[in-house]
């Protein structure tokens, strides 16, 4: 390490055994001490939560020691480039289990807790997960920080410490009801507040120009008020490696000294109002799939966490003796979607206004630091903010955006003279009507790399919404196919399967998922297939019990578990699966003695509170379930369950129990999907369209081991261009007509023929997601699924091959791709440092 760096060297960690020992005795002692000194309890009068807290603090102590060593090693080395993963969402899931796996002390902790008279499973079930994300995007961020630590990539995840995460969902009378998520109510043992690292963020006011001592024209921002960001750090341990990174989430507080004037003038209420206004910024996570148009608070959140994080990163950089303009040598920033893309302008502001770096130099630094991941082609999801709102909240940042845009458009017109269409499409400012700041354009201008999240998605991005950008900056475009962490989603969630795999091929695979290939020969081994089947059956029994507990519905564990869990959205087409259920129900009604494969349809997922159609789909699922589940003709051969409050905790119980994974989005709409990967890793077969990562999953597992149906993305586009007519399809398909008529008859709505009309009318007259076009293909494919299911050996052979061929979809591989293609960083082995 570098001797010049002594000023950043920290004291080494204390090595008192009770805070670091990994053996059963040390763990027991540490738990008892935490229980007493932190929770004020002892082992005979403890509550479950106090015990959970004591166990978690015990684990947290051990993580901190690794974090401390990692950061010492990193900060001692001037040549390390760190990754800053900026994301408005981190859907972390419960922490205790994964940390025990990463530290490799699951067995020791189980024993320690048992010797104290408790069960580790019960303690783990006590954890309230931090639901600081909506769905795929937030969960991806969580998988990525896990994999960065496991790949020994020095990294910090930066985000917002929402006091209220995604709402809890309960189902009342078949409808979704939202309940506020109070995840912090019982305390959070995984975080440490770092008030000494607080930073301030400006809002409102105006800007002024002035001449600095060298007679240069400079700008300063005179804000109306400032908000303080307090960082809360959560250690992120690597899997069986000594590296431990951290997640740094910002909480907003009032900048105490700022509004004293109003207090002094006797306006106590105004001072309090300012405090409330400041604290509101990190109050609540916004659900997605809703128009964000007027949501001032959301823009404040974005700017708040981006500014806090960049200031923090600059402080770290300067502590290394770095020059401000060399910021990019220290940091690679990944912008997780456009939510943090104001970083491009904020970094410019910091460099130019605060450190007086020349514009051109600062621009080079900024572009060399930032990269942008796009997660969707849906036009309504492309963020844009009214220029007026920007001017009002962050006036100096808007001026900088105007300057960036002015210079950029000059470049565009010299590259493509006379192409006014291009100019107006590529401009950061949308001037077609009310003026907007287009966040994706800001990201594309200021980032050296732009990536999609699956091959198909990246191709479509290049052909469609980012086509102009490819012409301008072809070298910026990359694909990085998403991945998921096998530690959480196999080792922790599916111990039965993990143990079976370990018995068969050893235990290297969770850190090196390609190893799973060694399972391939076992697919032809009848004895192995039998063990595999019985692991699945056990998982299904556990889920069945939970379904009974949460919904009252009794399901048969040996029926096929046909599962669709994800956010509820029309493009994901949960209602296509409902049409299939009704078709099967009709077949039974027409011939009650029909030979039909028993199936349990399990749905789960939240709808955005303001997304009416999605909420109506939930109601439809529950209503169809009420009828089908209770009709004696069905003889329990079909069951329909809506599993309430789909979150990471519940997901971990659902994936391992699935037989069939529904990945049935309209081709071209699902950027990647990540649930699809979690299902296959746990040995479910997929029925899916050629959409998102399904394409690559099918490529990996083999066409014969994947149930493909439906139009391709190109066919969807063609059909739309040629005047797609859903009603025509309806008129010509009897089964489909019967299904739709059954819904419209009021059969599922106590005779109310209007309740589901918004759904059926939309399908018949508009059908933007092409359910009608795919219906018969889907039904035929589902019939094939049922045929295959009857051959248990064949089904399990296919399922084992799915598991064996999932290596590509470890988030470790995705992170390696980011490191090589985009960040240009290498693993940093702290033992060798
Ligand atoms: C979005 C996309 C998904 C993609 C994830 C992660 O998910 O297709 O897999 O991001 O890249 F739509 P949501 O956040 O919308 O669930």
Automatic annotation (TrEMBL):
Catalytic activity: [(1->4)-alpha-D-glucosyl](n) + phosphate = [(1->4)-alpha-D-glucosyl](n-1) + alpha-D-glucose 1-phosphate
GO MF: glycogen phosphorylase activity; pyridoxal phosphate binding
Gene Ontology biological process terms from the UniProt entry: glycogen catabolic process
Keyword Transferase: yes
CDD domains linked: GT35_Glycogen_Phosphorylase
Any single Gene Ontology cellular-component annotation: cytoplasm
Modified residues (N6-(pyridoxal phosphate)lysine): 678
EC number(s) reported in the record: 2.4.1.1
Function text: Allosteric enzyme that catalyzes the rate-limiting step in glycogen catabolism, the phosphorolytic cleavage of glycogen to produce glucose-1-phosphate, and plays a central role in maintaining cellular and organismal glucose homeostasis.
Family per similarity comment: Belongs to the glycogen phosphorylase family.
Classification via NCBIfam families: P_ylase
Name assigned to this protein: Alpha-1,4 glucan phosphorylase
Organism of provenance: Williamwhitmania taraxaci
Source lineage: Bacteria, Pseudomonadati, Bacteroidota, Bacteroidia, Bacteroidales
């Amino acid at each position: 390490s570098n001797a010049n760096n002594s000023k950043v060297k920290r004291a080494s960690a204390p090595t008192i055994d009770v805070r670091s020992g990994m053996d059963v005795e040390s763990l027991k002692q540490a738990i008892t001490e935490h229980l007493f000194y932190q929770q004020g309890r002892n082992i005979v009068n403890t509550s479950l939560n106090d015990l959970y807290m004591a166990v978690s603090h015990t684990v947290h102590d051990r993580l901190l020691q690794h974090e401390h060593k990692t950061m010492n090693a990193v900060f001692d080395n001037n040549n390390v480039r760190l990754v800053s993963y900026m994301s408005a969402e981190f859907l972390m899931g419960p922490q205790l289990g994964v940390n025990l796996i990463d530290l490799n002390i699951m067995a020791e902790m189980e024993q320690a807790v048992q010797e104290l008279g408790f069960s580790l499973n019960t303690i783990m079930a006590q954890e309230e997960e931090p639901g600081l994300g909506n769905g795929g995007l937030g969960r991806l961020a969580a998988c990525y920080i896990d994999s960065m630590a496991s790949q020994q990539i020095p990294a910090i995840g930066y985000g917002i410490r929402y006091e209220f995460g995604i709402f809890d969902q309960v189902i009342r009378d078949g409808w979704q009801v939202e309940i506020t998520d109070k995840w912090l109510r019982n305390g959070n043992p995984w975080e440490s507040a770092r008030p000494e690292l607080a930073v301030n963020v400006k809002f409102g006011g105006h800007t002024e120009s002035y001449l600095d001592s060298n007679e240069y024209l400079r700008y300063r921002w005179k804000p109306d008020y400032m908000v303080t960001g307090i960082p809360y750090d959560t250690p992120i341990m690597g899997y069986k490696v000594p590296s431990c990174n951290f997640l740094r989430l910002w909480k907003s507080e009032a900048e105490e000294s700022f509004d004293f004037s109003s207090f002094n003038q006797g306006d106590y209420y105004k001072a309090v109002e300012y405090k409330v206004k400041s604290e509101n910024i990190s109050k609540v996570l916004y659900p997605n799939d809703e128009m964000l148009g007027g949501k001032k608070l959301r823009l404040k959140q974005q700017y708040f966490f981006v500014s806090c994080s960049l200031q923090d990163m600059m402080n770290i950089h300067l502590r290394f003796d770095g020059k401000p303009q060399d910021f990019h040598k220290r940091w690679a920033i990944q912008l997780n979607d456009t939510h943090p893309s104001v970083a491009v302008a904020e970094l410019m502001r910091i460099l130019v206004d605060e450190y007086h770096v020349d514009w051109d130099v600062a621009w080079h630094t900024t572009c060399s630091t930032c990269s942008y991941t796009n997660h969707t082609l849906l036009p309504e999801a492309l963020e844009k903010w009214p220029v007026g709102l920007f001017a009002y909240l962050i006036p100096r940042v808007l001026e900088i955006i105007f300057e960036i845009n002015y210079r950029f458009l000059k470049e565009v017109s010299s590259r493509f003279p006379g192409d006014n269409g291009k100019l107006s499409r590529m401009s950061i400012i949308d001037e077609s009507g009310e003026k907007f700041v287009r966040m994706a354009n800001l990201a594309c201008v200021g980032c050296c790399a732009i990536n999609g999240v699956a091959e198909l998605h990246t191709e479509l991005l290049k052909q469609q919404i980012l086509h102009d950008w490819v012409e301008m900056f072809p070298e910026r475009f990359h694909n990085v196919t998403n991945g998921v962490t096998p530690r959480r989603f196999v080792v922790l969630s599916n111990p039965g399967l993990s143990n079976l795999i370990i018995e068969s091929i050893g235990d290297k695979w969770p850190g090196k998922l390609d190893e799973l290939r060694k399972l391939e020969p076992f697919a032809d081994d009848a004895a192995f297939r039998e063990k595999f089947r019985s692991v699945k059956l056990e998982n299904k029994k556990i889920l069945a019990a939970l379904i009974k507990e949460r919904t009252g519905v009794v399901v048969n564990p040996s029926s096929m578990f046909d599962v669709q869990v994800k956010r509820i959205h029309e493009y994901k087409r949960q209602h296509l699966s409902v049409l299939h259920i009704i078709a099967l129900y009709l077949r039974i009604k027409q011939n009650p003695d029909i030979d039909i494969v028993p199936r349990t349809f399990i749905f789960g997922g939240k709808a955005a509170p303001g997304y009416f159609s999605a909420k109506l789909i939930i109601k439809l699922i529950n209503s169809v379930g009420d009828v089908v589940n209770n009709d004696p003709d069905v003889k329990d051969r079909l069951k329909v369950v809506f599993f309430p409050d789909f979150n990471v905790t519940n997901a971990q119980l659902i994936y391992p129990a699935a037989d069939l994974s529904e990945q049935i989005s309209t081709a071209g709409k699902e950027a990647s999907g990540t649930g699809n990967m979690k299902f296959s890793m746990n040995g479910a077969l997929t029925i899916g369209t050629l959409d998102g990562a399904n394409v690559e999953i099918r490529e990996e597992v083999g066409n014969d081991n994947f149930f493909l149906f439906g139009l391709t993305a190109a066919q969807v586009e063609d059909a739309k261009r040629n005047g797609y007519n859903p009603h025509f399809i309806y008129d010509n398909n009897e089964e489909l007509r019967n299904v739709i008529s059954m819904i419209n008859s009021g059969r599922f709505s106590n005779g109310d023929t209007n309740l589901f009309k918004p759904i059926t009318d939309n399908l018949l007259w508009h059908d933007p997601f092409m359910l009608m076009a795919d219906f018969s293909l889907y039904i035929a494919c589902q019939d094939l699924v049922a045929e295959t299911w009857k051959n248990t050996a064949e089904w399990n052979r296919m399922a084992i091959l799915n598991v064996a061929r999932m290596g590509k979809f470890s988030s470790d591989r995705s992170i390696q791709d980011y490191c090589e293609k985009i960040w240009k960083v290498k693993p940093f082995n702290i033992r060798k440092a």
